[in-house]
């Protein structure tokens, strides 16, 4: 399971928030704001998108045997089904920024959840490989957009003193969706599991009618009255929003005076080289670490290692929730860099253990250690 423990890797950054960092406005003492019911409800509704992402990641492993048997898929054909969600996610990621700017954060989430639900229904009613592949691809496109717009929306509606804690919840909900899908997959068939995956889609589609649009996006469009009214509702009627509103306006003005091409070209300056290399390198490390592949085919891995395919994946999925909670709590205590180094080292050693266990199995040497090494390696990874 991918763990986004570094700021900027697991979540998207709004251009308006980036402008605040560039101009230094984010360092101004704007005052702390309390948590309001509307802020909590809006965050919950947005996090349904993260839960949907967890469902899509956790679906392929418990559904593998059922789909292959019912539709007569080969291992290669099912591999296409399992991985095509990533291709859809890449396309969705390309579309996400422009879409969120054109129709707003709330509108983007609404459309994405409708598309995602259509994809799950296509999988549930599929009669052949093409139908499940198309449904999985459509889900991937929607998820690719949601993974951008959800953290952006949450970061734009929360005050600075709460932003870190609220945006960290995205990864927690991904793990919750992952765990629930694994658990449900051990009880119901793959078609019913597809229908269950539409529940967070439906919840978000309905609840989005009752949450406000991002005040930053409203300010960007020049809708001043709506911007101030929305910001006041999110912060509470007794809260002073004047300084925060001024910061947002300054950030927007900074963006207006800087073209997209100029901002892109700035990234190629020598002073940014180290930061870009580190940032891109961390993304590649996370991607090529293979955690997603392990999640997609967890059932098969445990079966090859002679580990229970019903208990093993459920325990693995359930472990993700407390680990994510601990990560959130430790992030500010030890820092992103320390946690990243520790987790990368542990992941490397545990992947080596899994590989060693299957090596023993192939060589018919110490085969009794294969289940133990596999369980330890997978669980800690």
Output the radius of gyration: 22 Å
Low-confidence runs: 1-11, 22-31
Helix content range: over 70%
Q: Please tally the helical runs, counting DSSP H or I stretches of 4 or more residues.
A: 18
Question: Would you tell me the overall average pLDDT?
Answer: 83
The CATH topology of the largest domain is: Growth Hormone, Chain: A
Broad structural category: mainly alpha
Could you state the CATH homologous superfamily of the largest domain?
Answer: MFS general substrate transporter like domains
Annotation, overall tally of beta strands: 0
Quaternary organisation of the protein chains: single chain
* Overall spatial form: globular
Instruction: Give the CATH class of the largest domain.
Output: Mainly Alpha
Helices and strands, in N-to-C order? HHHHHHHHHHHHHHHHHH
């Amino acid at each position: 399971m991918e763990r986004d423990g570094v700021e900027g890797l697991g979540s998207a950054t709004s251009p308006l928030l980036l402008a605040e960092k560039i101009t230094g406005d984010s360092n101004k003492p704007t005052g702390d704001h309390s948590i309001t019911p509307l802020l909590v409800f809006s965050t919950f509704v947005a996090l349904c998108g993260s839960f949907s992402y967890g469902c899509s990641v956790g679906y392929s492993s418990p559904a593998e045997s059922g789909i292959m048997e019912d539709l007569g898929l080969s291992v290669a054909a099912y591999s296409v089904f399992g991985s095509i969600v990533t291709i859809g996610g890449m396309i969705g990621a390309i579309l996400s920024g422009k879409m969120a700017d054109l129709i707003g954060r709330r509108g983007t989430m609404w459309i994405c959840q409708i598309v995602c639900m259509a994809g799950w229904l296509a999988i549930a009613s599929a009669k052949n490989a093409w139908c499940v592949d198309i449904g999985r691809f459509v889900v991937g496109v929607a998820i690719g957009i949601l993974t951008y717009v959800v953290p952006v929306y949450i970061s734009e509606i929360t005050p600075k003193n709460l932003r870190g804690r609220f945006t960290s919840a995205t990864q927690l909900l991904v793990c919750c969706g992952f765990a629930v899908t694994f658990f449900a997959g051990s009880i119901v068939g793959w078609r019913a599991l597809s229908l269950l995956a539409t529940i967070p889609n439906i919840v978000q589609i309905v609840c989005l009618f009752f949450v406000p649009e991002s005040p930053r996006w409203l300010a960007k469009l020049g809708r001043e009255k709506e911007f101030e009214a929305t910001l006041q509702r999110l912060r509470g009627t007794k809260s002073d929003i004047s300084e925060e509103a001024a910061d947002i306006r300054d950030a927007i003005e900074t963006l207006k005076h800087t073209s997209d091409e100029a901002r892109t070209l700035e990234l190629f300056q020598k002073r940014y080289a180290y930061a870009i290399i580190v940032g891109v390198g961390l993304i590649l490390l996370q991607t090529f670490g293979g955690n997603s592949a392990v999640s997609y085919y967890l059932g098969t891995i445990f079966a090859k290692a002679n580990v229970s395919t019903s208990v093993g994946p459920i325990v693995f999925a359930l472990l993700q929730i407390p680990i994510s909670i601990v990560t959130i709590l430790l992030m500010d205590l030890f820092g992103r860099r320390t946690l990243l180094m520790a987790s990368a080292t542990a992941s490397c050693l545990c992947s080596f253990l899994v590989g060693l266990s299957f090596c023993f199995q192939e060589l018919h040497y110490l085969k009794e250690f294969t289940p133990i090494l596999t369980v330890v390696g997978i669980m800690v990874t």
